[in-house]
Amino acid sequence: MIIFDDVSLSFGRHALFKNISLNLHGGQVIGITGANGAGKSTFLKLAGKIIRPDSGEVKLPAAKNIAAVSPEMKIYDNLTAEENLFFFAKLRGKTLSTENIFKLGGRVGLDFKTFGNVRAENFSTGMRQRLKFAILLSVDADIWLLDEPTANLDDDGRDKFFNEIQAAKSKKIILLATNDNAEEKICDEIIQLPL
Amino acid sequence: MKLFSSRFEQVTAIVRKDFLIGLRRRATFAAMMMFALTAVASLSLSTGGAFVEPKFLAALLWVVIFFAASAGIAGTFDDEATAGTLQTLKLYADAQAILFGKMIYVFLSLTVLTIFILPIFLILFDVVVERFFLLLATIFFGLIGIAAAGTLTAALTTSATVRGGLFPILLFPITLPIFLPAISLTEISLTGDAFDMSSLVIIATFDLILITASSILYDYL
User: What is the distance between the terminal CA atoms of chain B, rounded to a whole angstrom?
Assistant: First the structure.
């Protein structure tokens, strides 16, 4: 469970969140929706302790193991797809075999036999998105922070993403910031942020 | 023990990744090497083979290392922040592992720079080193200090709007307590005069202080 305890955050004079207290339970997909500028991405960053609130506290489960797919979370352009995947997995103490990498590639629809040695700078936005998703799956995170995760994916990519989310949600805390109808449909609970 | 091994793995992964990217981009290494080479070569040519005081040579060596380091270290965090990868790195890696990974990378980069520039410096200025191991020890501890101070300063200035100018301004006063004994010891290693271990102990102690302070401060950045 992620606990927001009286959390406030402002940017300049604009109070984005004021005294928010809520509990985000696992075993479901929690959608974070709201107009542009409502603070969906910022909410995810607070939940992942990537940024700190001005006041209040965000409490995470003892063993913090968070991964994210977000337009703001970039991968290394100068590393190949395989090097990116291997590096981030290593940061979480996981050593991936070639077989693991190919399997992950199959789950996200990225052919590592063909593209594994290609630098990420040559990837399309959709391929980068798939690579980020493969990284998320490789580290077996307990908390998934997804910010418009299927925004640049084709139908096959979206299906793969949704299938993985559905298969994993019973054992994870999944927060999904979105304004997309298809993404909202897979959410079990929606938190609407006011502007 | 598990935490230690996990952090150690993270640190080695970050060092390896930074070297891989550094070698592929080449710009940072090239800037450091070319600055050092240009400075040493032009100063050597301007003296025209005349005798140069060991004190001046010692200061010159550390000035070259300082500015070449400045050209390279500033981008340690800045390049990642500009590329948008710093946030990803912070999410996946432990903060202390990032700091120490970057610090070790900077230290190794400076070591490569010094291995490149020192023989050129000694040849161009026709210098004979009387106390070689003292020179190596001074450079070793001096580079640790520059790496620790430089990494912390780079982390501090990443979010500043005028970071390019701010970096050397902040780095110089922090590294001054290292430079003064380092210059003195380098001079002794060239002249072969008797030396006091206390100067080396001062540099090593200041290194330790810088590393500890960086470790404490980085969690608040």
Answer: 26
What residue numbers bound the domain in which B75 lies?
2-218
Residues 6+ apart with CB under 8 A from A151: A71, A129, A180
Question: CB contact, 8 Å: B87 with chain A?
Answer: yes
pLDDT digits (tens, 9 = 90+) for B50-63: 888 999 999 999 99
Q: How far apart are CA B172 and CA A131, in angstroms?
A: 41
Tokens of B113: 């720079």
* A-B C-beta contacts closer than 8 Å: 54
What are the residues facing A67 on neighbouring strands? A144
CB atoms within 10 A of CB A57: 12
Quick one: tokens of B95? 């903060």
Maximum CA pair distance of chain B?
59
CB B80 within 8 A of CB B89: yes
**Cα within 13 Å of Cα(A194), Cβ side:** 4
Alpha helices in A10-57 (DSSP H): 40-47
H/E segment holding residue B184: helix B163-191
- Whether the per-residue pLDDT at B33 is higher than 90: the answer is no
Mean pLDDT along residues B181-202: 91
Asked if the C-beta of B173 comes within 8 angstroms of chain A's C-beta atoms, the answer is no
Comparing CA positions, the residue from B129, B97, B123, B109 lying closest to residue B68 is B109
**pLDDT at B1 (0 to 100):** 46
CB-based burial label for B90 (10 Å; 0-12, 13-18, 19+): middle
DSSP state of A82: H
Q: Pick the residue from chain A with its C-alpha nearest to B98.
A: A91
What pTM, to 2 d.p., does this model score? 0.89
Please state the domain count of chain B. 1
Beta carbons of B21 and A87 less than 8 Å apart: no
Q: How far apart are CA A95 and CA A103, in angstroms?
A: 14
Pairing of strands A55-59, A28-33: unpaired
Query: Residue B24 region, left (φ>0) first, then alpha (ψ -120 to 50), else beta?
Result: alpha
